[in-house]
Amino acid sequence: MRKWWLAPVIGAGLVAATVGVSAFAVTTNQSAKKAEVFQQLDLFADILAKAQANYVTEFESTEAIEAAINGMLASLDPHSSYLDPDDFKDMQTQTSGEYGGLGIEVTAQDGFVKVVSPMDGTPASRAGIKSGDFLTAIDGKSIVGLPLNDAVKQMRGAIGSAINVTVVRENVEPFDVSLTREVIRPEVVKTKAIGDVGYLRITTFNEQTVKALDRGLEQVRKDVRGGLKGLVLDLRDNPGGLLEASIEVTSRFVNGGEVVSTRGRRESDQRRYNAVRAARFPDVPIVVLVNGGSASAAEIVAGALQDRKRAVIMGITSFGKGSVQTVLPLGPGKGAMRLTTSRYYTPAGRSIQGAGIEPDFEVAAVRLSDKDIAELKTRAARFSESALPNALENDQGAERKPPHIPADMPPDGYAGEDYQLDQAVALLRAGKANPAALPAVAAAPAPATATP
């Protein structure tokens, strides 16, 4: 029996009467809702039948029904969707760490396919596709208005086959990019030594990430000689991935304690996830780099290290995806549905949904002018969770900061390759990457719970 059926025993007769009336009211209400649902299903069947009989050309009813299912799920939030059997198989392959495609994470916005981030070392990355680009056509055929899954299907194909994608980018004329599909084996962790500072870049969170990170940490230990001054953990343009991988990655930098918690409408969705005791370099300062392409599992890691005072966060505000999706198989030959089942919260109880992880040290990758900011302020946020259609609201009222001039930007004439990384290394070498010296992260109030 669900928890919300229980009531305090104040008086046996009163309670018995109240429960009886409540049960009757709930049963009657449920019956009315079921009747309404059946009426709507009848309406759907009538519309489908009339469309099949009267539409200007014949159409495939199976595809129309799948589109209707996707439309229903997309009306809930931008991350819920139907996966047909082929999509379901592709998703399982993708999370294993090897799959065929272009190496690009996309989402839907206002009928367009928008790039969340290209993966390092993939056809999309080598072709110069960037976070925030919009893809409007494939091989000259428009994909504007197509369900996201249909657009993604068109991007897939035989390994070695060519594809032409039309890209729309701000302040640039639309242009075509030629790509060749290949097996994607993303290098999920990259390392290098920058003098006395170790650098680790995590590009995605899949089944290979933790093992690759362990190898990378050992490589840093070997490459940095004469004493490790600090670590830079680069999560920029990391679109996220598996929740389990984010917890294990965080465990490499903290000794136990909470990493993230989830809350949904059912009691089984209320969970706390703790780190295992597997910390490497426990006393080495860490700077985590984030940007607008850092999403989901990447934000879980950044938020946990920030709240736990284990690292300082540098860069610009992250994407702001604070929800968890569960893949629910529908049975043989039916595929699955990806459904948002809970929100996640940082160790301090913060929801970053829509708001993102705000850096402790705000540093822009490029120099912005007052004109650039003015243009940004004239339209909705271009690249964030809160800009997506039907995005969940932040249940704590947190909002994303409006566009503004960043606190730190590359100076005029900057000749380096990566200003944010340069600043992270400088902070570590100056001994100022000390999270304990920063203001404490305020614990967020628990959200109000609703009776299902």
Question: What keyword list fits this structure?
Answer:
six-stranded mixed sheet; disordered N terminus; 2 domains; 452 residues; alpha+beta; 2-enoyl-CoA Hydratase, Chain A, domain 1; 10 helices; Pdz3 Domain
Question: How are the secondary structure elements laid out?
Answer:
Blueprint: H1 12-54, H2 61-74, E1 81-83, H3 85-95, E2 99-101, E3 104-109, E4 112-118, H4 123-126, E5 134-138, E6 141-142, H5 148-155, E7 162-169, E8 172-180, E9 182-184, E10 189-194, E11 197-202, H6 209-223, E12 230-234, H7 243-251, E13 258-263, E14 271-274, E15 286-290, H8 297-307, E16 312-315, E17 323-329, E18 336-345, E19 361-362, H9 370-377, H10 419-429
Parallel strand pairs: 11-12, 12-15, 15-16, 16-19
Antiparallel strand pairs: 1-18, 2-9, 3-4, 4-5, 5-6, 5-7, 7-8, 10-11, 13-14, 13-18, 17-18
Helix pairs in contact: 7-8
